[in-house]
Amino acid sequence: xxxxxxxxxxxxxxxxxxxxxxxxxxxxxxxxxxxxxxxxxxxxxxxxxxxxxxxxxxxxxxxxxxxxxxxxxxxxxxxxxxxxxxxxxxxxxxxxxxxxxxxxxxxxxxxxxxxxxxxxxxxxxxxxxxxxxxxxxxxxxxxxxxxxxxxxxxxxxxxxxxxxxxxxxxxxxxxxxxxxxxxxxxxxxxxxxxxxxxxxxxxxxxxxxxxxxxxxxxxxxxxxxxxxxxxxxxxxxxxxxxxxxxxxxxxxxxxxxxxxxxxxxxxxxxxxxxxxxxxxxxxxxxxxxxxxxxxxxxxxxxxxxxxxxxxxxxxxxxxxxxxxxxxxxxxxxxxxxxxxxxxxxxxxxxxxxxxxxxxxxxxxxxxxxxxxxxxxxxxxxxxxxxxxxxxxxxxxxxxxxxxxxxxxxxxxxxxxxxxx
Length: 420
What we know:
Layout: H1 2-9, H2 11-45, E1 47-52, H3 57-69, E2 71-76, H4 82-91, E3 96-100, H5 104-113, E4 120-127, H6 141-151, E5 157-165, E6 168-171, H7 175-186, H8 188-213, H9 217-222, H10 227-263, H11 281-306, H12 312-319, H13 323-335, H14 343-351, H15 356-365, H16 369-394, H17 398-401, H18 416-419
Parallel strand pairs: 1-2, 1-3, 4-5
Antiparallel strand pairs: 3-4, 5-6
Helix pairs in contact: 2-13, 8-10, 8-11, 8-12, 8-13, 10-11, 10-16, 11-12, 11-15, 11-16, 15-16
């Protein structure tokens, strides 16, 4: 009962363990709810571009069928290649293209009148836009094929699927399957980043708090050495741990990519390396630097916060206020593509330094090195600012007496004289 009362009376624990989750998870739920709703609205507004290269009665019948349940735009007699497909999609602001090839009507007539085993094929092209779980909610081709077959006869229509990746048509690759495979591997990235950041923060906070709790910080500060050297020493040890953690992360990430790639069934016809969806050497380098500077910023924040604690338990409670800044962007970016969020949400996520490793991990897969480089510059500037504040703090005597108090949250205990 004594221990329970002490824990309940500590406002730092009360805020970190109860209040913060009650705020963090509703915000996260709101972001995800908005993403689902936005994906559904985009699916309803999406235009399916139909290129009719057959121009027969059966192709007109299929177009009329599609027009009942989808918004379509029709072009005729166009030879599709990479450039033509991208120009058409850009012109109609669409990410989905359906081609009715020549001979489609003849195959339909033969199926109906001569040989039921003959099928007619259409070609579907989907633009790969990201790895969010909600990105492919609007892909309609499977539903269209199913409904059309139920209307006439089983298996009369089939779809040959292709994916447009970075402006190039990749035949035989299903956009939904590709997105699912990439999502299954990228969902592990935010989790690993969360573990690495929280582990490093605990190490840095414990290092300073133990000095104050064991009363060795006073002795350390009386030694004939510069205060900034003491801070640099503490940060250097944490930086070394952060560097080893970043290196271990990159090795584990590379192994995970290889394991996921080798587990893809051969019949899926998906080679992520051949498709250019595996980070290059430059991508790995940028991702490692992004993670390292994010770790460094977290360590600097932990050192400052733990200096306001009287003991290790207090330091652990104080650094708990950093966790929402780690968990919220990590959980959000597991399921949501930052490009689909409103401008205000984008600014908030970009402003949080700990979101940039996750953003960089997806950017380097798509070859967007500029986004990763911007994150490195921003987080580095943030880290320099935090370290400067820490250096000024360590240069004063406040490092010995600083305490973070929550006035009004803790009831003042009466002295024995007052009780008497």
